[in-house]
Design a protein that fits this description.
It contains four helices and no strands. It has about 70 residues and is an all-alpha fold. The protein has one domain. The longest helix has 21 residues, at about 45-65. The relative contact order is 0.19.
Length: about 70
């Protein structure tokens, strides 16, 4: 699995409802807000894994909806 960087995750969180991401990943809302709103450099690898998996699933769902994947 590809692990996204903290800055990539921060950018992807900008247009997301953190409540939804929190429920989907099991991460606390404040953790997500801190990653999104600060120049965070110290994030647990497990957190990066969970968020990377979330965004990878999200991209696959969009591709399926657009007919790119079957």
């Amino acid at each position: 699995m590809t692990i996204l960087t903290i800055s990539e995750i921060s950018k992807k969180l900008q247009d997301r409802r953190l409540e939804v991401v929190s429920v989907a990943t099991g991460l606390h809302y404040n953790t997500l807000r801190h990653i999104r709103d600060t120049h965070q450099t110290n994030v647990k690898y497990e957190t990066l894994e969970k968020l990377s998996a979330y965004f990878l699933r999200d991209c696959e769902c969009v591709a399926v909806a657009n007919g790119a994947l079957k």
